[in-house]
Design a protein that fits this description.
Belongs to the glycosyltransferase 2 family. One of its GO terms (molecular function) is glycosyltransferase activity. Pathway: Cell wall biogenesis; cell wall polysaccharide biosynthesis. InterPro entries: GlfT2_C, GlfT2_N, Nucleotide-diphossugar_trans. By secondary structure, the protein is of the alpha+beta class. About 30% of the residues lie in helices and about 25% in strands. The chain is built from 16 helices and 26 strands. The strands form six sheets. The protein has an eight-stranded mixed sheet, sandwiched between helices. Strands 1, 3, 4, 6, 9 and 11 form a six-stranded antiparallel sheet that branches. Strand 24, helix 14 and strand 25 form a beta-alpha-beta unit. Helix 10 crosses helix 13. The radius of gyration is 27 Å and the shape is globular.
Length: about 625
């Protein structure tokens, strides 16, 4: 038998979340009787049953079998039994089972042990060696506990693998967080990382790149975390270069040092399950070859809901955030449903994503996109160079639900421009087909009376056609230009609900349109809007009903903002609609004519744009100076 020193911890089992707002059922489930669940232990009353076949409770064996060289996992637990009132022996009082599932959710027992009461009531350690050999397409392992005629308490559940099974031993790990005026959120994230001693043991560096004016170092929580982290914490200040610039700075600093390190990128406004860091870093060390290891996203406001099992992209229509597989879970409670099928990921968003230093050295730093699509482009680029991505279930952070973010904001400029650049670099880039997609987006905004949104999209296409030089300043100048452009359109601004007429009737949508006839419906709606054949309004439309084909039936609407904190007032303006439609025609013709040349220019510029020299210039630092305080 191997000694404990020859084992590598890859997962712990907690029985409740890091805070009261997280349901215990994400970690463990009580199926019979009464049990008390705490973070570190679970106590079952006589006759009770519980298991860890829960989102954070499972060992994701399918992913370990597919992507690592690990062939077996050892799981151990400390079990204590209550003492009987009688001194008479009463036999076995508890059972621990290792259970497993397959791609279809069929369950089986891998191993089990009966537990007897120890003299003096001390703990009994149970240990199992479970093969990781029947999970290639799906399935996981977990523990099941049954109490007999005595209370049963379980803690110290640890899953380990042989230390010699790691690809390169335990590599150093660095967390890189970028923040912009989210000081409280960022301080809380850093504090969460510093709160778990075993997580601290696997963190060698924590980089916080602060690009805001409300600085993180002004918060007491950050000061307390800094004391716990000590020399591992590196606090950097720089001008606002967006998410791309903030994350890239952490990657730049890590790869500028000697040796290798994993760089774990993490949003500033997530709520962290510290166990996620331990699982991601352990998995990354054991992959058969270097690859990106991403965490899943749970909703912050609905903490048991999963955004997606894994995300995919379709560059032919400039879309990402799509289900990577038809079998992927999407917008469902992972208390009610677990993911059995292994889902392969084309990329992982940077709410939490680990990138080995060897990948960064091979493919370069991110594109200087400022905002949006930097993570998507990087994952696609890595995939094309032979570095796949895994989105690891049971490794997750809570992030603000996208549902609460309104789609009409300055980010749409960067989203469209950057998706066009990404498609130019990584796809066939059929300009005629893409021009149809661009036309649909702009026309649907026009008919929905979102004139500022339509102008934002048109400006994004123009910026793309400027070529790689549009990225020279990292996005600061363009951000100012886009905000100024949008300020001239009142419907882009959120108003207090008190400004909505009290008598405005609510108009709900009646059924969806036929997707096969979407272009025909769009043309008819545009004609009706231009001719004024609409209900005059004002009317109120809930956010969930604010599809363009519904909003376009009215002349004046108050649409609830996605944040539910106000409304947007949209009014029909035939002159604006005609001007924007004419501009769309000009822009599309230019896109078809100039798009192929722009594609060639962007492809040629990738090595320069993603190089250390370019990023050092944007940071305003000496390229040779890689030390930080």
């Amino acid at each position: 038998m191997q000694t404990a020193n020859a084992r590598r911890l890859v997962q712990r089992n907690h029985f409740a979340g890091p805070a009261d707002w997280v349901s215990e059922d994400l970690y463990s489930k009580v199926t019979r009787g009464v049990a008390r669940r705490l973070r570190a232990e679970i106590t079952l009353q006589p006759g009770a049953m519980a298991h860890t076949n829960a989102y954070f409770g499972r060992f994701e064996a399918s992913y370990w079998q597919r992507w690592t060289g690990v062939t077996a996992v050892r799981v151990r637990a400390d079990v204590r039994l209550g003492r009987p009132e009688s001194a008479e022996p009463v036999g076995a009082h508890g059972t621990v089972r290792v259970r497993a599932s397959d791609i279809a959710g069929h369950e089986r027992t891998v191993d089990f042990a009966s537990v007897d009461a120890e003299p003096g009531g001390g703990p009994v350690t149970v240990e199992f060696d479970a093969p990781v050999d029947k999970f290639l397409d799906g399935g996981a392992m977990w523990l099941e506990f049954r109490a007999g005629d005595l209370p049963l308490t379980v803690d110290g559940v640890r899953w380990t693998v042989g230390a010699d099974e790691a690809r390169e031993g335990r590599l150093p790990n660095a967390v890189a967080i970028c923040t912009f005026n989210r000081a409280d959120d960022c301080a809380a994230t850093v504090a969460a990382l510093a709160s778990d001693p075993e997580v601290l043991d696997v963190l060698d560096h924590v980089y916080v790149t602060d690009q805001g004016t409300d600085t993180v170092d002004s918060r007491p929580a950050f000061a307390a975390a800094a004391e716990a982290l000590g020399e591992r914490l590196h606090y950097l200040r720089q001008p606002n270069l967006g998410g791309a610039g903030g994350f890239s700075r952490g990657m730049y600093e890590v790869t500028g040092r000697a040796g290798q390190a994993n760089v774990l990128l993490m949003d500033d406004d997530v709520r962290v399950e510290p166990e996620t860091v331990l699982r991601m870093t352990a998995f990354a060390d054991h992959t058969a070859s270097p690859m990106l290891v991403g965490a899943q996203m749970l909703y912050l406001y609905n903490p048991d809901y999963l955004l997606l099992s894994a995300e995919g992209d379709d560059l032919s229509v400039l879309k990402a955030g799509l289900p990577a597989d038809d079998q992927a879970l999407h917008d469902v409670s992972v208390i009610d449903k677990v993911q059995e099928r292994r889902i392969d990921a084309p990329y992982n968003a940077w709410w939490s994503c680990l990138i080995p230093a060897s990948v960064i050295r091979e493919i370069g730093l991110p594109m200087p996109y400022f905002f949006q699509w930097d993570d998507i482009e990087y994952g696609i680029r890595a995939r094309g160079r032979g570095f796949p991505t895994v989105t690891l279930p049971g490794a997750s952070v809570w992030h603000a639900d996208f549902y609460w973010k309104d789609g009409d904001d300055f980010g749409q400029f960067f989203g469209l421009r950057n998706s066009l650049i990404t498609a130019a670099i990584h796809s066939d880039f059929d300009v005629r087909e893409l021009s149809k997609e661009l036309s649909r987006r702009v026309l649907s905004a026009i008919v929905a009376m979102q004139y500022g949104f339509a102008e934002t999209l048109l400006a994004a296409v123009d910026a793309f056609l400027e070529g790689p030089g549009v990225l020279d300043d990292g996005g600061r100048e363009l951000l100012a230009r886009v905000r100024e452009l949008r300020s001239g359109h009142p419907e882009t601004q959120r108003l207090p609900v008190s400004e909505m007429p009290a008598g405005a009737p609510v108009r709900r949508i009646v059924g969806p349109i036929d997707k096969d006839k979407e272009d025909l419906v769009l043309a008819k709606k545009a004609a009706r809007q231009l001719s004024g054949r609409v209900e005059p309004g004002p009317v109120a439309i809930p956010y969930e009903d604010s599809f363009w084909w519904h909003v376009s039936a009215f002349g004046e609407v108050y649409v609830t903002d996605a944040s539910q904190g106000g409304v947007r007032r949209r009014r029909r303006d035939a002159a604006q609609a005609r001007a924007l439609t004419r501009r769309l025609g000009t822009t599309v013709r230019r896109f078809i004519a100039e798009g192929p040349a722009a594609q060639d220019a962007y492809r040629a510029a990738v090595p320069t744009l993603t190089g250390r020299e370019n990023w050092a210039r944007l940071y305003g630092i000496d390229l040779a100076d890689t030390t930080v305080s």
